[in-house]
Amino acid sequence: MKKILFLTGTRADFGKIKSLIQVLEKQEGFEVFVFITGMHLQKEYGYTLIEIERCNFKNVHTFENHTHETTMDLTLAKTIEGLSTYVKEIHPDLIVVHGDRVETLAGAIVGSLNNILVAHIEGGEVSGTVDELIRHSVSKLSHIHFVSNAEAAQRLQQMGEIKSSIFTIGSPDLDIMFSDALPSLDQVKNYYQIPFDAYAVVMFHPVTTESKEMRQYVDDFVNALLKDTHNYVVIYPNNDLGSQSIIDAYQQLKSNSRFRVFPSLRFEYFLILLKNSQFIIGNSSAGIREAPYYGIPIINIGTRQQNRAVHSDIINVDYDSKSIEDALKKIDRHEVQNTNIDFGQGNSAQLFLESMKKQDIWEINHQKQFSDI
């Protein structure tokens, strides 16, 4: 019996690993645990622990690692302390972490320093800002890599990771994006009381390396939205440093009939709203990953995704109001182009399971080696 511990700190990373947890829980020979922390336990961000509880996982553990906008280093330290205690209780064989969050780094540190195998989902990618530093650090602390495409695998090999430890499974959220179990648009609109026939999606996150400028950035952004004529479904940012400035600025949208503002949305419901939207605007990775698969136009603001936003469907603009207003004026005439992005075929959970069943993966050396190329 292999004990597998998944760590989740945000609605975004849970959307990525949900299908992996579910497929593993159904298999004999695996005992699954879920360590829940971060945004999931913060009421101002929608208390998304509720969404995880709806999944009825067998073994879940919650740990509060945040005071509001705690600096990332202190959040890291607190998460390490809480996770380390839990790990010593359950003695997992593998810790699974995702992406580039500070909680992800905590999971990789706890695993690697306690002689526990660490598997990193979606390593080898270019994130931009401080997130990229975290993602690559996690990759170097991890023993096993489940990547979304060949480019990510190549980057990991450039970083000295051993080829046999890298498994290309695609981006796991695609499993949910093309699931037959998604709700209808009418169900979603009724659930969230969204009255619009046509609407766009707003997701704007703080950029930690530009935290001093975030207040001006979001003020310009909100002003541009208020001058525009589209209807909008607005979703709160993540809880990085600078998020309160964004939440404060969003308050002036709540009394405007063109806007519906939410702390969070259920991932499956969000996908349906995105799929049926006119466009998405902001700086979320949803504009880089999910939106192109649905053929949705994207207005990407600022630097947060600049190294990832490489395909032709993205309209990249600066933070100032005029740039955003100009993009909004032409977005309805923007023709969506076919793109060659590759984040898998929606079978990530099955490929993940096949890898986990192989004996080779459990024989990977805990003592990492650097592989020269």
Q: What structural class do you assign from the helix and strand content?
A: alpha/beta
Seen as an oligomer or otherwise, the chain set is single chain
Percent helix, as a range, is 25-40%
Strand order of the biggest β-sheet: 3-2-1-4-5-6-7
Uncertain segments are none
Series of secondary-structure elements, N-terminal to C-terminal: EHEHEHEHEHEHEHHEHEHEHEHEEHHH
Which strand-content bin applies to the residues?
A: 15-25%
| Number of distinct helices | 15
The global form is globular
What's the helix and strand layout?
Layout: E1 2-8, H1 11-25, E2 30-36, H2 49-53, E3 60-62, H3 72-90, E4 94-98, H4 102-113, E5 117-121, H5 129-141, E6 144-147, H6 150-158, E7 166-168, H7 173-177, H8 185-192, E8 200-203, H9 214-227, E9 232-235, H10 243-250, E10 259-262, H11 267-275, E11 280-282, H12 290-294, E12 298-301, E13 314-317, H13 321-330, H14 348-357, H15 359-362
Parallel strand pairs: 1-2, 1-4, 2-3, 4-5, 5-6, 6-7, 8-9, 8-11, 9-10, 11-12, 12-13
Give a verbal description of the structure:
This protein is of the alpha/beta class and 373 residues long. It is built from 15 helices and 13 strands. It has a 7-stranded parallel β-sheet, with helices on both faces. It has a 6-stranded parallel β-sheet with strand order 10-9-8-11-12-13, covered by helices on one side. It is globular. It starts with a strand and ends in an 11-residue tail after the last helix.
In short:
Helices cover 39% and strands 15% of the residues. With 373 residues, it is of the alpha/beta class.
